[in-house]
Specification:
alpha/beta
Length: 314
């Protein structure tokens, strides 16, 4: 029996993903676009990484071999992923099944509309793929697949949780209801309605897979909240808490004594976070236009800045 597991899609993948974390370069055969979302962050210069530090929103337009390359989403890809990488820096294992609580992120392959279950790799990248709302957040390429929001294919992945071995499912349905006729006023609202229709269709299938005698469905009242309601985060939190409290009686049968829970929690979080690499020396080769001393000065500056931020947060 699996004591617990997380299977999440869309923005719902973010918090469990961060919690369970504790806490392809361009080649001759590939088109290299001057666009941040297609360049792995590890391949960016220190200056480029710094430029991205505070830029999470904005279209990414660039020039490629075929001319102007228009963005696939309104929200910047590399900066958002950089933020998620910082938040998941304590990921100790690339196998999501070996995280403190086994985790799966759900995404959708845009070429065929099929569900993709992400169970290994980089946690930040998997979470970003799962929350890549079409036309809003740029898609993510993982293992040759172009991935977007998993809600398109499976908004409530009950079957994925069952496949992980869960005997009891406690799903949280945060799907947005369909827009009313008077709310559909533009191309954007029409596009949003089509996305909601696809989500509602697969949601009905997932709800039918639940066993009401065992599973506990929690459905917050989100009639006035959707994925873009960043200004209503506190209200959404309150709706979620209210729905969970209303399910208290059904959840209580699965409660364990406080001492047993403390032992279980300690066992889950007993693994040590990966330690940093200690560098004994840094050699800089191949510089042509930038003096080596300038590069070393930049690295020292970034190092001091990060250490100062850590001390301030402590």
């Amino acid at each position: 029996m699996l004591d617990s597991a997380h299977a999440n899609t869309t923005l719902a993948a973010v918090l469990p993903g961060l919690r369970e974390s504790r806490a392809r370069p361009c080649g001759a055969s590939l088109p290299c676009y001057r666009r941040a979302s297609q360049v792995a962050r590890r391949d960016l210069s220190i200056a480029r990484k710094s430029d991205d530090a505070g830029s999470y929103v904005g279209p990414e337009i660039g020039i490629g071999p075929d001319g102007v390359s228009l963005p696939k989403g309104a929200v910047s890809g590399v900066a958002l992923e950089a933020l998620l990488r910082r938040l998941t820096v304590r990921q100790a294992d690339s196998d999501f099944g070996r995280l403190p609580i086994p985790f799966r992120a759900i995404a959708t392959e845009v070429s065929n509309g099929e569900m993709v279950v992400l169970d290994h790799g980089n946690l930040a990248q998997a979470v970003r793929a799962s929350m890549a709302i079409p036309a809003v957040i740029s898609p993510v390429e993982i293992d040759g697949q172009l991935l977007v929001d998993g809600g398109i294919a499976r908004n409530l992945p009950v079957d994925v949780a069952r496949a992980m071995g869960a005997n009891v499912i406690i799903p949280i349905n945060i799907g947005s209801p369909l827009l009313r006729r008077d709310q559909i006023k533009s191309v954007l609202s029409m596009s949003e309605q089509m996305t909601r229709m696809l989500t509602a269709s697969n949601l009905r299938t997932s709800l039918a897979e639940l066993n009401p005698q065992v599973d506990v469905l929690i459905t917050p009242d989100l009639a006035n909240v959707d994925a873009a309601s960043f200004d209503l985060l506190k209200e959404a939190e309150g709706y979620g808490e209210q729905a969970a409290r209303q399910a208290t009686d059904r959840l209580r049968r699965y409660a364990v004594p406080a001492d047993d829970y403390a032992v279980l929690s300690a066992r889950r979080h007993g693994a040590q976070a990966p330690e940093g690499v200690l560098l004994s020396a840094v050699h800089i080769d191949g510089t042509q236009r930038v003096p080596e001393a300038s590069l070393r000065g930049t690295m020292v500056s970034v190092h001091r800045s990060r250490n100062g931020a850590r001390r301030a947060s402590a």
